[in-house]
């Protein structure tokens, strides 16, 4: 179903990264991980994934700032836009608006079922033209 699609999982909680990595690998994704926004930007530059699953609140560089930097890299290099799905414990209207303004494509509140997450990822990849 998702075979061969690269996903970058960005979360400062190692257990969340591990759980998501395991579940997404079972779905056929090739998974890379980053522990904060700075690592996410570096990983993005090293090889753009098909989609980024990013936490909002992280040390050093939060998800919003990381998303803005990724969008700047895309603009500077002419790279295609990589969908960013924010996955966060915060669920206020302000957070959703901030995520959209930073260049995010989707916003999902934790906890999320793997089924809902899979459906969201499938929808993002279909819109991007990578079923």
Model description:
Helix 2 (37-46) packs parallel to helix 3 (63-77). This protein has a 5-stranded parallel β-sheet, with helices on both faces. The longest helix has 15 residues, at 63-77. It has 5 helices and 5 strands, in the order E-H-E-H-E-H-E-H-E-H. The mean pLDDT is 90. It is of the alpha/beta class.
Concise synopsis of the structure shown:
With 131 residues, the protein is of the alpha/beta class.
DSSP E strands, number: 5
Percent in helix: 40-55%
Number of separate helices:
5
Q: Strand order, biggest sheet?
A: 2-1-3-4-5
What portion of the residues fall into strands of 2 or more residues? 15-25%
Spatial shape: globular
Rg from C-alpha positions? 13 Å
By secondary-structure content and strand pairing, the structural class works out as alpha/beta
CATH topology: Rossmann fold
Could you give me the name of the CATH homologous superfamily? Response regulator
Topology:
Blueprint: E1 6-10, H1 14-26, E2 30-34, H2 37-46, E3 51-54, H3 63-77, E4 84-88, H4 93-101, E5 106-109, H5 114-128
Parallel strand pairs: 1-2, 1-3, 3-4, 4-5
Helix pairs in contact: 2-3
Task: Supply database-style keywords.
single chain, Rossmann fold, 5-stranded parallel β-sheet, 5 strands, 18% strand
